[in-house]
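Tutorial sheet, problem 5. The two components below are modelled jointly, 879 residues in total.
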Amino acid sequence: MTTTMDRTASAGHSAKSPLIEKLNVFTAFGLGIILAVVFYVLAAKLIPEDTDAMLIHTKHDQIILLAMIGWFIGFMVGIGALIGPFRWLLGKDLSHDENMFYAGKDLGTKRYFRYTTDHKVVGIQYLVTTMIIFGVGGILAMLIRTNLGNPEGGWIHPQAYNAIVGIHGIIMIVGTIIMITGPFGNFVMPIMIGARDMAFPRLNALSFWLIVAAIPPILSSFFLGGIMTGWTAYEPLASESPAGMDGYIMFICIFAISTMVAGANITATVVRMRARGMTWNRTPIFIYGVVASVALALPAFPVFFLSQIMSAFDRAMGTTFYNPAGGGSGWLYENLFWLMGHPEVYVILLPAIGALMEMAPVFTRRPLFSFNVAVMGIAGICGLSALVWAHHMYMSGWAPLLNGPFMLTTELISIPTGMLFLVLVGTLWRGRLWLTVPMASIYALLWNFMIGGITGIYLSDVPADGALHGTMFVTAHFHYTLMGAGLTGAVASLSYWFPKMTGRMLDRRLSWVSFWMVQIGFNVAFIGMFLVGLAGQPRRVESYNAMFNRGNMVTTAGAYVIMTGMLILLFAVVDSWRNGIKASDNPWFAKTLEWSVPTPVPLENFATLPVVTTDAYGYGKAKS
Amino acid sequence: MSQTQTQDKAPWWKRKDVKETATLWVILSVLIGGLAGEVIARSMGAPASETMENTIRMMKIFTWVSAPVAGLVGAIALKSLMQKRHYGDTPPAESDHEIANSPKASAVWIVTSGLLCLFALVFGMIVMQEDAKSLQAPNAIHVNVTGQQWLWNFDYPDNAGVRSHDLYLPVDRPVIFNVSAKDVKHSFWIVQMGVKVDANPGYITQTAVTPNKIGVFDVRCAELCGLLHAYMQSQVHVVSQADYDAWIKSQGGRA
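Model answer (structure tokens):
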């Protein structure tokens, strides 16, 4: 432990205030709740009452939004996010000891409940949080499917049903956005590029704890009347919604900040901190997937943030950004939303496909086929996805003359997407297939993403969209891409990197059982949904004509199979984490850098930083 | 790089595994194209306008065009799976080649997908123009559609004062819908005719169609519009011109 003179000076100062050691998730929740209540009470007292003469009533929304801002400030102060910036304001920085404490040195499991900067701790925090988010979203999905088990609408009140659909949607979108860049982008990525940590470790902790801060507002919306708009929160319906909408707005705003922070951090890390000799041609393809994803999120999420701020102003301050009566336009919201909303699906997909492309050479024991085409495909998707947003608006009547140009850009995206297929099947061809869950997941991805992709070609076509827009066909299509392709990649990543992250193997038998149940249940459920969509069942309905009954029964049955499979996976993860078979440092005999460090990975990863002389795909005859 | 297939004397297309993959490709393509095309046509039901007929035909053609792509991916993936499998805790031996690239294969793949893309685009544009013809027809009748939570109002401006909640249309005559909404966004959708446009408060949007079958068809709202969105349904009665005139008269119009 080397401390220079000026470091000791600042350490001497901070020794008087061991505040940094007192803050953790409990103080964060405590302070958050206290400030929320204080803000609520003060706002209720001080803000003047609405009168009947007023055109719109704003007081309730102002109170709720202020209380949530109180929660946000309290939580971030309580977790210790402001200690660093506050020191800088005083013209000082954290001492070496404090930085070590921040990194979670010698803290054991306590470090998982603190503002810890070690990227491996953040990775595990993200993993557990993602699983919790999927758990909540999954329960909501099962409520939806159970309610749709019979045509007359079930036992859920339409208002509650709409809230469930909307919150299922947005929380799953957030879950899938973080499911790979969060856990594996944080835990694995820095080791894979030969770095000791992220470029900005404190921003890394910040991005994670922002997500935790964002979750209570969206869950609270259940108790504030729910959101009745679906995950898209279209205006002017959103302005009409009860105060639950404010929870949605706060959730998106905080999450958008988290995504921007994480995006800047990951991009900086990959650009600046790759090991010596790791040229762009030697950088693993998973890194490309992650960087492309966050680079895409960087311009997209500020737009989302802004769209929700404007929504909040319309609700609470009487502005009319989206209200046609005051010169606004609902189409403005749609444009802002989809400017984020379409890049966002590739934010979800690219890391998943990148991860599976990373695993393909390992489990076929041959080089990745056409690395350059893979990079071109990822870059092509990145570029084009910023230009396709209005294909969600073909039927909105906003600008019929733009339908042709957007049809062009949308169909062009099938070219770079096709390149990724070429890379995957090219790698399978004449390989020796080591049949593990990640290997099988590559097949599942090819199958699911092919269906998701081809149904996307129908939807990209304007006349066909006239029949299919707003139907269950669309719902099935994006579940095939985000769940069938994206989540499959995430589960494969989990079983591939589980040994490095936990030191144990994920139970093989249980993960196979789970794999088959989820994949079969998924295909049964969503092919049923395609059929009712083609036949004309609208999305987001809580009751439907009797003619759709059979398809919905099939979907509901499939959903229960998925649920069982997911519960088995959850059990496998928990059980293997605690008492699974001990894993060696490199159980898959892979060549990327993360397998070259010991398990558990020590603080700062590498004793001496590695020097890279070749790419990581040197499998095949000559090298064996 | 691509010093490939050094062990094979025969040209690549004569190799056994390539031939088998090609056979598999043909079989899979026909299966996928036939099966998916049939499922789509059956599920979408009987069309009630030329627009819907075009849409179904186009989706079938798109299916047949993408079937060879899906078939090829499937064939390569399946053939690889059938060739060399390995189970166990330790990895298999390294594969017997180190092909990392094939510029030819990549180029063919990219050019082909580009051409398919172009085909889809041009074809889609043509059908789009075809469908837009009803919008320019001189003999078209107009219907003003107003969505409100949670029902549809149909006004017939050629006969001031006539309003209904079920839509009545004469067969084989172009109809132009001027669509708007009172409160929030809705989406006006005639299921069997394959036309749809959002109803926006404060703005008028247009769509047009020529019904070509007598019968009763469905209008559904296709944009989540709040509490009773699921129940925002209505019907279209497509009748002969004479029956239509009689209905207009019965509603107090001039016919």
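Marking note: Chain A touches chain B through 91 residues (CB under 8 Å). Full credit if you identified this.
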